[in-house]
Write a sequence for this structure.
């Protein structure tokens, strides 16, 4: 350990730790803005400056490593004045429309001003040119609110490995965005929204579709159906003061009904359905591979639309590796406007489907031509967790006082396997639970329901199991060792795809989620989302699974009834028509998509 002195008190820190981190570990707060734990440490804003004995100038504490005997002062007159000047200079080029900004009271820049006690605006002058890029169905950029902290650059280039956002031009004309001033919709952005999650101000926001949903709710001619993703129930509570990871499933269902939704369904229902379709698709491919037929392995999951768009841009020649399954919320939208519409005797044109998602890329997904049926969108609007919270407050609903409600059937019942879709590794774990029983005809031993090697926040996780004691129709799989991999975040996805490109993939089945940690930290979730919050949400997801009486997708009685009444069988004609899709070669810079 390194021993140093901070504000006259002896402190210890691990070698390599920054002064800012050492101070935090010793319960000393150094105000900062651009720094973001595990993401961004470049000293761009200089707000975190401190005096270090022997240094000629003030030092940015987030990038200066501790050393033995260092003497640091964090709260001198010189430091305090420097912080105020730096803050006021940034403020002089920032719009002061806080009351109408979506980040009002949740803005890090605003909170910093309160922390360092800004009481006057001493600097006025020219403003940077403001431009608003609303070309994307998912992400809106407002350069006038940007403070050039560069967090979004780091997450786009290094955490996600997409590289769309960078500093363009220089000096006072600097702006962060795609090259050549191209709009986001014309480049290879995955619309994952991780840039939104790290933006400290309102420069990057998810497109707000709440007014579109209010209009549908107020239209007496519309039957408005809502569905909620697995990750929402463990994150929505944070917007109402609950600790991260609090499960608010029942209160959420009650609030949605109070808002006026006619049917409150659960995306978890079609998560169970996805597992059955995807599991059978994998078995078909594995069977073909072992019996000399044509098979594309490894098969890769297709639940994450950000990941899908990424692979369409970066690896378009390898789209056949993707499962043909639509994502669960698109499946439910399709069923709502066919199966359910028939069941209740209503014209699909009078149904308006709303998905509550942790994901900004889902907003883009519903605009894809492949997702339309009979000229209609299968899902009409996507709201993020944050948008739903704002709408609940706007409706005057006291969320914490809500009774514990339930989802409506037939599209509201789910198993524990569906709950874990919200965390990285969950889709793989759910699939293996079902594939094991389909192949062997035996129940998964209770102690093996929790497949721990695919859990956690490691970038790439691996597992393998050998199939033994198969049913007669799967005798060819006897002794076959299935090797699987799980990754979340597009940097990990790129690593696994390069193995496929090199022709040496060691896996048969791969799960990819576009956001680090999976849907629990999607671009539409409450801010902030850091490692501790991810872990809390993940723990809650697995607790929700463990508390269910049914924990395997094929045990969902309403899904089985759906096959009996309507779909026929997994991968059958009706299933392919409603639940499966195809993908698009877009070109490295979206050039194919622009031409089309």
């Amino acid at each position: 350990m390194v021993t140093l002195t901070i504000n006259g008190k002896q402190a210890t820190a691990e070698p390599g730790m920054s002064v800012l981190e050492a101070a935090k570990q010793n319960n000393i707060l150094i105000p900062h803005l651009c720094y973001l734990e595990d993401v961004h440490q470049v000293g761009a804003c200089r707000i975190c400056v401190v005096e270090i004995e022997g240094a000629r100038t003030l030092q940015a504490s987030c990038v200066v490593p501790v050393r033995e005997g260092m003497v640091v002062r964090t709260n001198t007159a010189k430091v305090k004045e420097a912080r105020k000047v730096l803050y006021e200079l940034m403020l002089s080029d920032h719009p002061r429309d806080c009351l109408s900004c979506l980040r009002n009271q949740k803005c890090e820049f605003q909170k910093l001003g309160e922390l360092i006690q800004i009481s006057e605006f001493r600097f006025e002058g020219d403003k940077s040119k403001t431009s608003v890029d609303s070309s994307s169905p998912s992400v809106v950029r407002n350069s006038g609110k940007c403070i050039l902290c560069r967090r979004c650059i780091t997450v786009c280039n290094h955490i996600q490995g997409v590289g769309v956002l960078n500093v363009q031009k220089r000096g006072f004309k600097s702006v962060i965005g795609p090259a050549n001033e191209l709009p986001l919709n014309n480049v290879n952005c995955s619309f994952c929204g991780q840039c939104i999650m790290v933006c400290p101000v309102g420069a990057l926001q998810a497109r707000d579709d709440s007014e579109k949903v209010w209009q549908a709710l107020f239209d007496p001619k519309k039957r408005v159906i809502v569905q909620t993703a697995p990750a929402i129930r463990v994150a929505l509570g944070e917007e109402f003061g609950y600790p991260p990871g609090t499960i608010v499933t029942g209160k959420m269902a009650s609030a949605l009904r109070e808002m006026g939704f006619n049917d409150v369904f659960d995306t978890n229902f079609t998560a169970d359905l996805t597992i059955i379709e995807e599991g059978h698709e994998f078995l078909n491919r594995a069977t073909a591979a072992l019996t000399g037929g044509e098979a594309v392995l490894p098969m890769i999951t297709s639940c994450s639309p950000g990941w899908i768009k990424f692979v369409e841009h970066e690896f378009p020649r390898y789209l056949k590796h993707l499962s043909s399954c639509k994502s669960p919320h698109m499946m439910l939208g399709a069923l709502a406007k066919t199966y359910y519409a028939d069941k209740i005797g209503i014209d699909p044109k009078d149904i308006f489907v709303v998905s509550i998602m942790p994901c900004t890329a889902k907003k883009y997904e519903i605009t894809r031509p492949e997702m339309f049926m009979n000229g209609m969108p299968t899902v009409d609007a996507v709201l993020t967790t944050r948008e739903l919270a704002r709408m609940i407050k706007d409706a005057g609903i006291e969320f914490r006082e809500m009774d514990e409600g339930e989802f409506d059937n037939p599209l509201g019942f789910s198993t524990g396997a569906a709950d874990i879709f919200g965390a990285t590794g969950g889709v793989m774990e759910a699939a293996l639970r079902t594939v094991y029983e389909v192949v062997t005809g035996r129940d998964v031993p209770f102690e093996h329901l929790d497949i721990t090697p695919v859990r956690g926040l490691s970038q790439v996780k691996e597992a393998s199991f050998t199939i033994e004691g198969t049913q007669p129709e799967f005798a060819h799989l006897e002794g076959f060792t299935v090797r699987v991999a799980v990754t979340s975040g597009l940097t990990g996805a790129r690593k696994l795809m390069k193995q496929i490109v090199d022709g040496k993939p060691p896996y048969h089945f791969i799960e990819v989620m576009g956001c680090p940690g999976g849907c629990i930290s999607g671009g539409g979730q409450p801010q902030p989302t850091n490692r501790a919050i991810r872990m809390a949400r993940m723990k809650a997801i697995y607790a929700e699974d463990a508390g269910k009486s049914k924990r395997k997708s094929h045990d969902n009685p309403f899904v089985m009834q759906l096959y009996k009444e309507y779909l026929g069988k997994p991968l059958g004609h009706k299933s392919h028509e409603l639940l499966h899709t195809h993908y698009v070669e877009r070109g490295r810079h979206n050039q194919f998509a622009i031409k089309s």
